């Protein structure tokens, strides 16, 4: 199992600073002060915090792209079918349908390519691991 580091669970200092905003009065000068206090930068999230928050799924974007690709592809088919059923070739709706159709196919293609690359990497890791085990086994019996 992956061990969580203690700093991954802590709230970043920038977020703590925004939560400690003091209450201000109701005067017009106080509203400007409140606006100035509320304007802070967005805290950067470390890779450890991202892994802790997502459970390690940040490297599996191909799994997320499949449902979005299917939905966009279906929307593209529907919009294109409606546009061409009314004989509106070249209109805005037909162009939108073709763009959605292309985007859906692109998302599904990218997802398939990412899946294939990941599968090849896993095969390579297994081969390396197996070679290391065979080499270790040979040195034990020699």
TrEMBL record:
<feature type="transmembrane region" description="Helical">
    <location>
        <begin position="64"/>
        <end position="86"/>
    </location>
</feature>
<keyword id="KW-0472">Membrane</keyword>
<dbReference type="Pfam" id="PF16311">
    <property type="entry name" value="TMEM100"/>
</dbReference>
<dbReference type="GO" id="GO:0071773">
    <property type="term" value="P:cellular response to BMP stimulus"/>
</dbReference>
<protein>
    <recommendedName>
        <fullName>Transmembrane protein 100</fullName>
    </recommendedName>
</protein>
<dbReference type="GO" id="GO:0005886">
    <property type="term" value="C:plasma membrane"/>
</dbReference>
<keyword id="KW-1133">Transmembrane helix</keyword>
<keyword id="KW-0812">Transmembrane</keyword>
<feature type="transmembrane region" description="Helical">
    <location>
        <begin position="92"/>
        <end position="117"/>
    </location>
</feature>
<dbReference type="InterPro" id="IPR032536">
    <property type="entry name" value="TMEM100"/>
</dbReference>
């Amino acid at each position: 199992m992956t061990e969580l580091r203690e700093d991954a669970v802590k709230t970043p200092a920038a977020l703590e600073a925004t939560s400690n905003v003091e209450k201000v009065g109701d005067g017009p000068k106080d509203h400007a002060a409140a606006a100035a206090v509320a304007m802070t930068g967005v805290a950067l999230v470390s890779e450890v915090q991202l892994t802790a928050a997502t459970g390690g799924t940040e490297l599996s974007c191909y799994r997320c792209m499949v449902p979005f690709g299917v939905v966009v592809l279906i929307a593209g088919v529907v919009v294109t079918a409606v546009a061409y059923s009314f004989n509106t070739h070249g209109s805005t709706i037909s162009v939108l349908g073709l763009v959605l159709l292309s985007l859906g196919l692109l998302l599904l293609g990218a997802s398939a390519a990412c899946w294939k690359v990941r599968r090849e990497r896993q095969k390579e890791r297994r081969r390396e691991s197996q070679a290391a085990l065979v080499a270790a086994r040979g040195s034990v019996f020699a």
